[in-house]
């Protein structure tokens, strides 16, 4: 399969060959959903916690005598039913991570790339390089390409001027090829790959 390559100025820069095994799959929503759930679970801090009966700072003395009051039997004021007491079955600090096989993660990335290509939301640029770190100049180039919400994937090393100029533009993200992931691909409107990124993906999945 061949894709047209453009320059950052919108001019034609030839074509690039892409593999059907990476960009030509029929996207499976179940695999993509599993991958996104895995990614979001991995990002959760898991630091939410409430106090148990053993952690509440409150007296442990018996509230009132056992018999003769006509009231229910109670011991500690730390019990969950009392104001200022502990929380029953509250959240505790834990990891939300769960396992997902490495082959499924690799397959999910290929399905995400295929889904973007199928919806005609993939653009290939010859290189992600800016002459100077000026946000105004780069945002003008993006506007001419019709890019208002996009994820840019460069090679192993990103051009520093491009990275600095793009970081202040809303809804524009820039990642090296090592940082490509399913969640960011599906979250963005357009996926913009450099030729170096396409070559790296072909090498990774060959």
From TrEMBL:
<keyword id="KW-0687">Ribonucleoprotein</keyword>
<protein>
    <recommendedName>
        <fullName>Large ribosomal subunit protein uL4</fullName>
    </recommendedName>
</protein>
<comment type="subunit">
    <text>Part of the 50S ribosomal subunit.</text>
</comment>
<dbReference type="InterPro" id="IPR002136">
    <property type="entry name" value="Ribosomal_uL4"/>
</dbReference>
<keyword id="KW-0689">Ribosomal protein</keyword>
<dbReference type="GO" id="GO:0005840">
    <property type="term" value="C:ribosome"/>
</dbReference>
<dbReference type="GO" id="GO:1990904">
    <property type="term" value="C:ribonucleoprotein complex"/>
</dbReference>
<comment type="similarity">
    <text>Belongs to the universal ribosomal protein uL4 family.</text>
</comment>
<keyword id="KW-0694">RNA-binding</keyword>
<dbReference type="InterPro" id="IPR023574">
    <property type="entry name" value="Ribosomal_uL4_dom_sf"/>
</dbReference>
<dbReference type="GO" id="GO:0019843">
    <property type="term" value="F:rRNA binding"/>
</dbReference>
<dbReference type="InterPro" id="IPR013005">
    <property type="entry name" value="Ribosomal_uL4-like"/>
</dbReference>
<dbReference type="Pfam" id="PF00573">
    <property type="entry name" value="Ribosomal_L4"/>
</dbReference>
<comment type="function">
    <text>One of the primary rRNA binding proteins, this protein initially binds near the 5'-end of the 23S rRNA. It is important during the early stages of 50S assembly. It makes multiple contacts with different domains of the 23S rRNA in the assembled 50S subunit and ribosome.</text>
</comment>
<feature type="region of interest" description="Disordered">
    <location>
        <begin position="42"/>
        <end position="99"/>
    </location>
</feature>
<comment type="function">
    <text>Forms part of the polypeptide exit tunnel.</text>
</comment>
<feature type="compositionally biased region" description="Basic residues">
    <location>
        <begin position="64"/>
        <end position="77"/>
    </location>
</feature>
<dbReference type="GO" id="GO:0003735">
    <property type="term" value="F:structural constituent of ribosome"/>
</dbReference>
<keyword id="KW-0699">rRNA-binding</keyword>
<feature type="compositionally biased region" description="Polar residues">
    <location>
        <begin position="42"/>
        <end position="54"/>
    </location>
</feature>
<dbReference type="GO" id="GO:0006412">
    <property type="term" value="P:translation"/>
</dbReference>
């Amino acid at each position: 399969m061949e894709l047209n390559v453009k320059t950052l100025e919108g001019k034609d820069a030839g074509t690039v060959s892409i593999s059907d095994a990476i960009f030509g799959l029929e996207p499976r929503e179940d695999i993509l959903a599993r991958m996104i759930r895995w990614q979001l679970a991995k990002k959760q801090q898991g630091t939410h916690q409430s106090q148990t009966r053993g952690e509440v700072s409150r007296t442990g003395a018996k509230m009132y005598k056992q018999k003769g009051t006509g009231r229910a039997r109670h011991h500690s004021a730390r019990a969950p039913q009392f104001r200022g007491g502990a929380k029953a079955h509250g959240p505790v600090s834990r990891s939300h991570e769960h396992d997902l096989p490495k082959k499924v993660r690799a397959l999910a990335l290929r399905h995400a790339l295929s889904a973007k290509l199928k919806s005609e939301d993939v653009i290939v640029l010859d290189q992600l390089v800016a002459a100077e770190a000026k946000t105004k100049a780069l945002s003008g180039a993006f506007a001419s390409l019709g890019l208002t919400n996009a994820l840019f994937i460069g090679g192993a090393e990103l051009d520093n001027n491009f990275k600095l100029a793009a970081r202040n533009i809303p809804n524009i993200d820039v990642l090296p090829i090592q940082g490509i992931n399913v969640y960011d691909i599906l979250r963005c409107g357009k996926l913009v790959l450099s030729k170096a990124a396409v070559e790296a993906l072909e090498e990774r999945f060959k």
